[in-house]
Design a protein that fits this description.
This protein is mainly α and 606 residues long. The chain has helices at residues 3-6, 32-53, 57-70, 75-88, 91-104, 109-121, 125-138, 143-155, 159-172, 177-189, 193-206, 211-223, 227-240, 245-257, 261-274, 278-294, 298-315, 323-336, 339-348, 368-376, 389-398, 413-430, 450-456, 469-478, 493-511, 523-528, 530-541, 552-557, 585-588, 592-601; strands spanning 358-362, 381-383, 438-442, 461-466, 518-522. Helix content is 62%, strand content 4%.
């Protein structure tokens, strides 16, 4: 969700103008004339606030400004001018006025709450969060501040921290549908989408026909593959409030998944024309690209993906996603893990370890989510859904003196044993039903960190998904990822090719020293020869075929799959994505020379 969407109900005028009890007191002046003037100003502000509530904003603003002429240090008048600027979208001016109001009187919760709204509208989420927290410190029962703290935490991806605030609001106001809307967003982030749907249905019992609740319900239903009902909810919204851009986008997404590509194109183009938030526009162009791709229109599809990626690059520009820095780190890891260094580190581990996790890796968009759903259906296996214990260990290493990877040289035997224990503790804390099952730690780009994986667990097995490098890179360019340092490389075709080169060269470097503890499989073989390929993989892992494998698609439909492939893995296995690159050969020309060596070494030149 974008900040704009999350705050769609928490508008400045709903509290600070409508409620008089939060008005800042006017300090007593030393002279009788000043006292009279202050009282008159207070009465004028109260009357102007009534005009403000009635929508006569220009008239109210004129009073606030006139008060400031005679009393430049009137904090409430300064605050309300800031509210007016905020309502008009004049964010720089609003911030200036609100900060001045706080300088004059730092004891008013609404001042901080509105400053938080201004900062949030500028995507300065952490600063906004701190303002909302300060508003709560001043007024712990402030419902708007509670709601906005929840929203800020959600926007920062900190759903577990947001949940108590939602519940706190509902304790105070059980029928607060906005709190239920935020709680549903929390549950979706926590992968409890079915519970979120129940919360939204309850909220709609309280407030039938509420458009925001209905839109969130349709989005949640799409996530759990209940496409027909999701579309019915969208149609209900259209009857209540036609022409909402986000609703058109959702209709396009659902229609595409239903194979109604002409309808999808119509809805998605309408959504873009009507105007979306920055984040929604990224999604809409990406969905339009996928629609054109399914229709066989490669040229228009590639153009739509370029527009989506360009919008994403602009959107995350301030978040300092460092794609080139990621490539430099991959190169540093490759230089670090020489045979000599690996042996020296292994000698520090005086105790052996019989724990044998399977590390399931590959370049992104190589079909790992499809196989994970297959493996998850096996009663003897448990997979991590990309909540990777190895990634948790890598994060811990990054915080050590010397950083990653060079800080590994500073670790002694006890340090390495502690990292092993951290891996296990993460499993116990985050992975259900591990007892008696084989762990499969699946996260594609953990392929970069296999040096650490084999150091800590020498008996671990490595399962590597391969896909035609041209298809893998094309699919990465086409996919809308959550952007981090690694994924930032997929916003441009050239850096996508460079990322593939760096990552897969590192894998070729690793595999020479891993003896027989690794297995590569081709995604294409999984699609074209499913049973034999899965059997070979299960034998490598150490478990046999189980009849539940045959029902993996039905089981996947009941799960909330959070990877970019969640919309595809519940469909029957088909070959529509094989050799897709041939439709885009002209567009891929700039990176084909970079990929050619890997086409050869991984056997795709035949």
């Amino acid at each position: 969700m974008s900040w704009k969407n999350l705050f769609r109900r928490n508008k400045a005028e709903t509290q600070e103008v409508a409620e008089d009890e939060n008005q800042a007191p006017v300090e007593a002046e030393t002279g009788q004339a000043q006292k009279i003037q202050a009282a008159e100003n207070n009465e004028r502000i109260l009357a102007a606030k009534q005009q403000h509530r009635e929508g006569r904003i220009a008239e109210a603003e004129a009073v606030y400004l006139d008060v400031l002429k005679s009393d430049p240090e009137n904090a409430e008048a300064r605050h309300l001018v800031g509210v007016v600027c905020l309502q008009r979208g004049q964010l720089a001016e609003a911030e200036q006025h609100l900060r001045q109001a706080i300088e004059l009187d730092n004891g008013q919760a609404p001042y901080y709450s509105n400053l938080g709204n201004v900062l949030g509208a500028q995507n300065r989420t952490e600063e906004a969060y701190q303002c909302f927290k300060q508003a709560l410190n001043l007024d712990p029962q402030n419902l708007t501040a509670l709601s906005n703290v929840t929203t800020a935490l959600l926007s920062m991806g900190r759903a577990s921290e947001a949940k108590p605030y939602c519940l706190r609001i509902l304790e105070m106001v059980p029928d607060d549908t906005n709190a239920r809307l935020n709680l549903a967003a929390v549950l979706i982030e926590e992968r409890e989408t079915h519970e979120a749907i129940a919360v939204l249905r309850d909220a709609l019992e309280i407030k039938p026909g509420d458009v925001d609740l209905l839109i969130q319900l349709a989005s949640a239903l799409e996530l759990v593959n209940q496409l027909d009902e999701a579309f019915e909810v969208i149609e209900q919204v259209e009857e209540i409030n036609p022409g909402i851009a986000r609703v058109s986008m959702l209709a396009g997404m659902i229609s595409r998944r239903q194979g109604k590509f002409d309808i999808a194109e119509k809805h998605l183009k309408a959504a873009i024309e009507r105007g979306l938030s920055d984040e929604e526009e990224i999604e809409a162009f990406n969905q339009l690209g996928l629609t054109f791709d399914a229709m066989g229109n490669g040229k228009e599809a590639f153009s739509a993906f370029e527009q989506s990626n360009s919008a994403m690059a602009k959107y995350v520009g301030g978040q300092m996603a460092d794609g080139s820095g990621y490539l430099s780190e991959v190169a540093a890891i490759k230089d670090f893990f020489t045979d000599e260094t690996s042996r020296a580190l292994a000698e520090k581990l005086e105790t052996d370890d019989d724990f044998r996790p399977v590390f399931f890796v590959g370049f992104p968009r190589s079909g790992t989510t499809l196989l994970e759903q297959v493996l998850k259906a096996h009663p003897g296996l448990v997979t991590t859904d990309e909540r990777s214990p190895l990634s948790a260990v890598i994060r811990e290493i990054r915080g050590l003196p010397g950083g990653y990877p060079h800080g590994l040289n500073r670790l002694d035997s006890n340090d390495l044993i502690r990292l092993r224990q951290s891996f296990r503790e993460f499993c116990w804390d985050n992975i259900d039903d591990l007892q008696g099952k084989q762990l499969v730690d699946k996260l594609p780009l953990n392929i970069v960190h296999l040096g650490v994986a084999k150091l800590l667990f020498p008996k671990a097995r490595i399962l590597v998904a391969l896909r035609d490098p041209r298809d893998a890179c094309l699919s990465c360019f086409m996919q809308k990822f959550e952007i981090n340092h690694a994924m930032a490389n997929f916003l441009e075709l050239k850096t996508t090719g460079l990322a593939y080169e760096a990552v897969m060269n590192l894998w070729l470097h690793y595999r020479t020293g891993f003896d027989g503890s690794w297995l590569e499989y081709h995604y294409e073989d999984l699609v074209e020869n499913f049973d034999d390929t899965v059997t070979r993989i299960l034998d490598f892992i150490g478990v046999g075929w189980h009849e539940d494998i045959n029902d993996y698609r039905q089981a996947a439909k009941q799960r909330v799959i959070t990877t970019p492939s969640y919309r595809d893995v519940t469909a029957p296995v088909n070959d529509s994505a094989l050799a897709r690159w041939r439709r885009y050969e002209q567009e891929l020309t700039p990176i084909l020379p970079t990929l050619e060596p890997f086409v050869d070494v991984f056997g795709y030149d035949k």
